[in-house]
Amino acid sequence: MTAESFEAAWWLPGPHLQTIWGKKARRVAFTHDRLERFAMPDGDSVSLARMGRAAAGTPHLLVLHGLEGSVRATYAHGLLAQARRRGWTGDLLLFRTCDGEMNRAPRMYHSGETTDLDAVARHLVQSRSGEPIFVVGVSLGGNVLLKWLGELGPAGPALVRRAVAVSVPMDLAAGSRYLERGISRLYVRHFLATLKPKALAKARQYPGMIRVDEMLAARTFWEFDDAATAPLHGFHDAADYYARSSSMSYLHRVAVPTLVLGARDDPFVPPASVAQAAKIASESRFIEMQMTQSGGHVGWVSGQPMKPQYYMEKRSIDFLANA
Hints:
Number of strands: 10
Structural class: alpha/beta
Mean pLDDT: 97
Number of helices: 11
Order of helices and strands: HEEEHEHEHEHHHHHEHEEEH
Radius of gyration: 18 Å
C-alpha cells in the first residue's frame, strides 16, 4: 500500500467539511468547450462534456462522475484542468439522466452499469487509431470503472493505459448500511432529493416498473434501491443489485495499472471494506492502493483558505502520466 503524503487543510478539520467543501464552496472554471450527445447501442444516448479534440498521439482522459454528478462537478473539471496543463484532451461522461434530460430507455444509470462506459471508451480508442485512453472514476464512477476493468480482464490494456478509482464504495451493501449512521444520513437525504423525482419520471414513462409508493417513502439507499433501482434494472432486490454490482468482486481480475485512492475517514466507505480491498490489492500486480488518514469523501483539500489545493486531482494525473 502506498504511503500517505497528504496533509488536510487546518481550516477544514474532519471528514465532513472536507467532503462538503468541493460541492458547496469551491469555484472552478469549466474546462469543456462543447457538449455532445453520443448514441448508445440500445437507441438511447449519453452526453460527453468535451475538452479539445481527441487525436492519435495525444493522451486523452475520460472522467466518470459520482452519484447524481453533472457537468458542474468541480472535481471533474479539476481533473480535466490538470490534464489540459499537460497538453492532454479529455471528456466527462455524463451518465443517463445526469445531463439534465430524462433518457428514453426503460432504465437509467446505476453503480454497476458498465455498458455505456464500454461503448464510449471503445469509440474513443477507435478515434485515436487504437491508442488506449486514461480513465478516472470518482465514487460511483469509481465503482463502475473497477467493475468494468474486472469484466475486461486481460483485454483491458487494449482500451485503457492506466486508471484511477477515487473514494470508491467497493462493497455497495456495506456502504449503504454505513450511511444509515448518524450525520451520514444527511448525505442520503441530499441524494434522494434528486433521485426520487427522476425515478418518478421514469415510472410515468414506464408504469409498473417501479414500486412508486415505496420509492417515495424511502429514507435510506437500501429502501430506494429495493423499490426503484433493482426492479428497473432487472435485479431481484437491493441485496441482489449490490451483490452483482459491487466492484469488490471484480478487483482480482483487473489487468490495467490502477491506483485506488481513498481516505480512512471517508464517511461513505466502512473500514471493513477498506481492509478487504487492501488484501485483494496486495495480491495484485496491477492495483496500487493508497489510503490517507484524512480527506473525507472526494475531498483532499489542503493549502490556505485563499489558495486551496486539491491533492486528489494532481495525484491522479501524476499517476496516469507515469505510464
